Amino acid sequence: GAGPGDPGLITVKARDLVASCDVLVYDNLVNRDFLRQTPEGCEQIDVGKKPGRHTVEQEKICKMLVEKAKSGKQVVRLKGGDPFVFGRCAEEMTVLDDAGIPYEIVPGVTAALGCAAYAGIPLTHRDYGSSISFLTGHEDVEKEALQLDFGKFAAAGGTICVYMGMGKLEEIVEKLLAGGLSEDRPAAVVSHGTLPTQRKVISALGDLVPNVRDAGLTAPAVIFAGNAVGL
Ligand code: SAH
Q: Among the atoms of ligand 1, which is closest to the Cα of residue 194?
């Protein structure tokens, strides 16, 4: 895990691995600063999405990891945030297991936690929020509508953090309202969290969509809702 953006948020352990690897395979959301921290001669492979170019498919990434490791190289697979949070890490682990390649997982600060901290948004409070849910607003490109029952999470009363939700912000807010959250429930959107370009909108849930649109916030962003958020 590379952390959410600010390069200072990578763990010491992950930073040491980046500084000593033979091959660095990195995603789009990984801060480019890390590319300057690899040893000389390290092969750096970008497998992220770029405008006008398709993502290197998951299968190809897995194959590449196996090939590089089998040739005796020390490979770092650097992912934004934490690798186990919406990071497709399980798929890569399965392939490495099948190929008999040993690896370890190094956790990272996930985007919701980085965004919350840098935007001053508490996620829990003794009186207002006793649970946190991480949801995805984008389950599968093949699926048109949101399948996840946002209403149930709303009813649970804790703090909701939605990843990959900007493309469906309106629908997500509608579902949270339909699930029982009131129009005046505190909500927020933090985009480009922990980076110098970070922007945030804190708003009542009922006004979140126009406020975010007026402010012109863009992905990557995390959407928050819950009483603790208002503090
Ligand atoms: N594994 C990552 C999440 C990958 S999914 C993690 O643990 O953070 C990609 C989503 O993460 C984006 O759509 C966005 O919702 C969120 N995200 C990643 N970096 C972000 C950032 N700097 N600011 C706000 N949201 C971010």
A: 22
What is the 3 state secondary structure string of 103-117?
Answer: CCCCCCCCHHHHHHH
164 Cβ inside 6 Å of ligand 1: yes
Whole-angstrom Cα distance, residue 49 to residue 58? 12
To the question of pTM greater than 0.90 for the whole model, the response is: yes
Q: How far is the CA of 192 from the centre of ligand 1 (A)?
A: 9
Residues contacting 68, CB < 8 A, separation 6+: 22, 23, 25, 43, 75
Q: How many Å lie between the centroid of ligand 1 and the Cα of residue 124?
A: 20
198 Cβ closer than 6 Å to some ligand 1 atom = no
Query: Per-residue confidence of the chain (231 residues) as pLDDT tens digits?
Result: 999 999 999 999 999 999 999 999 999 999 999 999 999 999 999 998 765 556 678 889 999 999 999 999 999 999 999 999 999 899 999 999 999 999 999 999 999 999 999 999 999 999 888 899 999 998 665 555 677 888 888 888 899 999 999 999 999 999 999 999 999 999 999 999 999 999 999 999 999 999 999 999 999 999 999 999 999
Q: How far is the CA of 70 from the centre of ligand 1 (A)?
A: 31
